Amino acid sequence: MRLNRIPVQAQRELFLLLSRFILFYNSVDKIDRFLKQFPIFPNAFLVGGPADFFVIELADQLQKLKVEPVLLHYLSQIKVLQGMELRMTTSTRLKACLYSFTSPGGPMFPTRAVRHAAWDALDLLFPVGRYPRHLISLFFRLLYPWYWPSSCWNFIISCITAVFYSLLRLLFSGRDKLRGAKN
Length: 183
Hints:
Helix content: 55-70%
Mean pLDDT: 83
Keywords: Membrane, Transmembrane, Transmembrane helix
Number of strands: 0
Number of domains: 2
Protein name: K-STIMULATED PYROPHOSPHATE-ENERGIZED SODIUM PUMP PROTEIN
Transmembrane segments: 153-172
């Protein structure tokens, strides 16, 4: 009721602004209600429905972000888009936005945490083509040998931590079994 008092153009601008920041304020549980109240845009037949406008604004916001903790927060909250019906152009725009954060070089130089969060979001939202994407990325990483030492080091560290946690889990599960046998 209160939204109808605001002029239509101001409503549209308000909803576009909210689309950019709704994930930042941990309001992902209100997305469905937000999209149902989205005003009708005159170019909606070209762009798509409310979900398309929302994702377009969100992708634009992601590309403008430069602060790592905020970007990580957005990438962790983006799982709310899973299963959303989007037009092909909107889906491609979102893929391109997420894929731009996965490479170590480029104009933005995303950190390792941002790259992994972007890969996780990309794999969650677009599971089809996951393995070819990773294979192509690996191939292009091999073209830059100055990244090899850090990649190998991080791989070794992740293997060691995985083995360590597996051993801890094995020890604690064995201890719990012994306690169960004594009782």
